Amino acid sequence: MKIALGLITPDHLKADELFLIDIKYDMFPDDKVKLFKKGQYLALWESSYSPIHKKYTSAQKEYPLAALPWFIDTIENEFWNHKPDPDALPGKTNEVTVIKGEKLGINPMRNCCAEDLFGYSFWNASRKSYISRRARHDWYIPQYMLEQGLMDDLKRISTELGLKSYEPFK
């Protein structure tokens, strides 16, 4: 497992931390979800109310920056514009790669953040949860959010950070 980067404090950013965007989940209107650049990583920071602890808690998921163009291109080319391979094994629906020594993947989900809501799990098997200390970081992203602007935001971020240029953000 990789060493944790340390939780971001959104109101007190360090020199290597940069706020990128707020992400709104309709099904979780009281949660705060923010995307940051932290060094050479993307960090998805979340704050939500814990009924068990009766307070707001924060969590963070981390991915190498170089994974952002892979995520964008994989969603668009392998999932949205999928052309079935007649030689592919039955049941292969996910994509897996290793970027900067971290094992990453994307899985389609039938129940992403809510019942019968299609989306994707963008995961990092090389990092442990800050809360449970169990392996992997999972970012659940409903497809409609990507289609309604989040994909454009991610492409703009990739272009602005010099990772990969996407039209019309050049």
Commentary on this structure:
This protein is of the alpha+beta class. Helices cover 19% and strands 38% of the residues. The chain has 2 helices and 8 strands; from the N terminus they run E-E-E-E-H-E-E-E-E-H. It has helices at 67-80, 143-160; strands spanning 17-22, 32-38, 41-50, 55-64, 95-99, 102-109, 119-128, 135-142. Strands 1-2-3-4 form a 4-stranded antiparallel sheet, with no helix packed on it. The longest helix is centred in the last third of the chain and has 18 residues, at 143-160. The N and C termini lie far apart (36 Å).
Helix content: 10-25%
Number of strands: 8
- Portion of residues in beta strands equals 35-45%
- H/E topology pattern: EEEEHEEEEH
Q: Counting H and I runs of at least 4 residues, what is the number of helices?
A: 2
Order of strands, widest sheet: 1-2-3-4
Major sheet: 4 strands, antiparallel
Structural class: alpha+beta
Low-confidence stretches: none
Average predicted local confidence, pLDDT: 87
What is this structure's SSE topology?
Elements lengths: L16 E6 L9 E7 L2 E10 L4 E10 L2 H14 L14 E5 L2 E8 L9 E10 L6 E8 H18 L10
Antiparallel strand pairs: 1-2, 2-3, 3-4, 5-6, 6-7, 7-8
